[in-house]
Amino acid sequence: MAMVMEANPQLTLRIRRANPAETDTVSMVSYRVPIEPGMTVLNALLYVKEHLDHTVAIRYSCRMACCGSCGMKINGVPKLACYTQVQECGGDAITVEPLDNYPLVRDLVTDFDGFFQKHKGVSPFLIRKNTSEQETSYSEYIQRADELDRFLQFSYCIKCGLCNAACPTLATDPLFTGPQALAQAYRYIADSRDEGLITRVNAVDKKHGVWRCHFAGACSFVCPKGVDPALGIQLLRRLVITRKQAQAAPMMPARGTSPR
Ligand code: SF4
Ligand code: FES
């Protein structure tokens, strides 16, 4: 009896192509890709580059959801291409586009310079008054487990920028500090080893800072690492208000007395 060979199932990968440095033309180009078991969207894109069209521009590195460089919109939602299986996308067609809220470099590659500038703007490192302790190999900062719990989830951020891509406030206000940097401001302020409260409060307590968030929550919805930036922003607001109240307290009249 003759054996019937079943052809590999295929998917259609629709890639948004654009090269703003050379032309204003934007197009959606479709490629047919054979589906392999366990194939990710990044695998599918690499198949296109290897076999069909090497000019497609993508960015990736670790292929294991650690480096944060392969973010893109997959069927309209910001995701990591290396962390998204083609079979979880539903149907036999997948559309990939560059992340929103970032300048476009080419095809699926966006410019993250502004993103990292905002991250840098909240001083994302431990600030200590005694800096000499950082120069000695035998110094250690003691921290209890409950103190670690206050910021641990925020330290899982891989700076993939998906949260900023999903943020509706950033879509209308490019100067907004954004969920990633604000959550990191909270991460360091909440760290019992840190002494940089004033520096970071000054960095976020401004017109395009922590008060611009409308609490849409899209940032937390898309985060691939389980970080909840929307929560971080709310906790950060509380810290800013508490600090302002503490600053104002000495100027307020004591209860039962009237100002002269
Ligand atoms: S908070 Fe989540 S989505 Fe935002 S940059 Fe960090 S890991 Fe990515
Ligand atoms: S390639 Fe590193 S997160 Fe996807």
Shape: elongated
Mean pLDDT: 93
Helix content: 25-40%
pLDDT < 50 stretches: 256-260
Supply the helix-strand structural class: alpha+beta
According to DSSP, the number of beta strands is 7
Give me the strand/helix succession.
EEHEEEEEHHHHHHHH
Cross-sheet strand order for the largest sheet: 2-1-5-3-4
Biggest pleated sheet:
5 strands, mixed
* DSSP helical segment count: 9
Give the N-to-C terminal Cα separation.
106 Å
Bound molecules: iron/sulfur cluster, FE2/S2 (inorganic) cluster
Strand content: 5-15%
Query: Taking Cα atoms only, what radius of gyration do you get, to the nearest Å?
Result: 23 Å
Explain what you see:
With 260 residues, the chain is of the alpha+beta class. It is built from nine helices and seven strands; from the N terminus they run ββαβββββαααααααα. The protein has helices at residues 41-52, 113-121, 145-149, 162-166, 168-172, 179-189, 197-204, 218-222, 229-248; strands at 10-18, 26-34, 71-74, 77-80, 93-97, 104-106, 109-110. Residues 256-260 have low confidence and may be disordered. 31% of the residues lie in helices and 14% in strands. Strand 6 and strand 7 form a beta hairpin. The site of iron/sulfur cluster (SF4) has 13 residues, from helix 4 and helix 6.
